[in-house]
């Protein structure tokens, strides 16, 4: 059976990774959270005090970074590794969230990440979520989904998730971070967050996780049927 590439883009915290992970599981496809790659690069820059305003420092730092995803038996999910260290939890830290969008504006960082993402999709059978997956990484993807949700709903969902790990966190902190990232991501020069012209929009403000999966799975099955006849 022929396989396809599915891209899921959208604003911060609208449920892209949740949907992409579940969809990949149902289809027995690879799931890649491209945001985790930008987060891991940011973690490396912060830890090593890299001055990311300086192109040479960025290039040297990138040459020292190896990113990979490895399956975690305990969680049943793929974790991001930075130079053989599992940093899946560390990259979700607020300090990383505060800096990741600035780091993601850097052309060299994007070229570094995009080249690896395209390599991962060579054999198709992949669901990748992010900001520029349907526009830049896989512009010819068979199925592109652009997820949206009401900003207040997005803040509430992310707050609920982070509060469980850190009861000190405030809703203002979460709201400011989402707004800042959405602004930088949408306004950067290289590969800004955009809805691809051929993407299907999925507003999940009032949908459960199961309902959004059901819709996406329906679109994926339709696409799969079409490509078998080509
Ligand atoms: N339909 C839904 N209803 C309620 N909560 C949801 C729904 N979809 C996802 N969530 C929850 O919302 C939060 C954000 O989801 P997720 O991490 O998948 O978003 P994202 O778009 O990948 O975010 P980011 O780009 O910021 O990493 C998570 O806590 C997730 O469990
Ligand atoms: N394709 C992508 C994916 C992510 N980014 C940047 O990384 C940040 C974190 O991503 P999450 O999906 O984990 O929220 C995001 O805010 C972007 O700045 C990107 O540029 N391109």
TrEMBL record:
Principal EC category: transferase
Tell me the Gene3D superfamilies matching this sequence: P-loop containing nucleotide triphosphate hydrolases (3.40.50.300)
- Superkingdom as given in the UniProt entry: Bacteria
Catalysed reaction, written as an equation: CMP + ATP = CDP + ADP; dCMP + ATP = dCDP + ADP
Q: Name one Pfam family in it.
A: Cytidylate_kin
Q: Which parts of the sequence belong to the Cytidylate kinase domain? A: 6-220
Q: Which GO terms describe its cellular component?
A: cytosol
Tell me which Gene Ontology terms the entry assigns under biological process.
nucleobase-containing small molecule interconversion; pyrimidine nucleotide metabolic process
- Which residues are ATP-binding? 10-18
Where in or outside the cell?
A: Cytoplasm
A GO molecular function annotation here is:
CMP kinase activity
Q: Name the family the entry cites.
A: Belongs to the cytidylate kinase family. Type 1 subfamily.
Q: What is this protein called?
A: Cytidylate kinase
Q: Species name for this entry?
A: Deminuibacter soli
């Amino acid at each position: 059976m022929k396989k396809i590439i599915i891209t899921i883009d959208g604003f911060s915290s609208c449920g892209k990774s949740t949907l992409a992970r579940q969809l990949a599981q149902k289809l027995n496809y690879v799931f890649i959270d491209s945001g985790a790659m930008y987060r891991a690069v940011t973690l490396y820059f912060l830890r090593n005090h890299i001055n990311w305003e300086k192109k040479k420092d960025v290039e040297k730092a990138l040459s020292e970074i190896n990113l990979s995803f490895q399956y975690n038996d305990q969680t049943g999910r793929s974790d991001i590794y930075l130079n053989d260290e599992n940093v899946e939890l560390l990259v979700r830290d607020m300090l990383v969230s505060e800096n990741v969008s600035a780091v993601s504006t850097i052309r060299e960082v994007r070229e570094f990440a995009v080249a690896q993402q395209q390599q991962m999709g060579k054999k198709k059978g992949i669901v990748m979520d992010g900001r520029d997956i349907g526009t830049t990484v896989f512009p010819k993807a068979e199925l592109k989904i652009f997820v949206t949700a009401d900003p207040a709903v997005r803040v509430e969902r992310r707050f609920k998730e982070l509060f469980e790990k850190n009861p000190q966190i405030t809703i203002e902190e979460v709201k400011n971070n989402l707004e800042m990232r959405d602004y930088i991501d949408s306004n950067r020069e290289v590969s800004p967050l955009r809805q691809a012209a051929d993407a299907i929009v999925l507003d999940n403000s009032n949908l459960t996780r199961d309902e959004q999966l059901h819709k996406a799975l329906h679109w994926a099955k339709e696409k799969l049927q079409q490509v078998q006849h080509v």
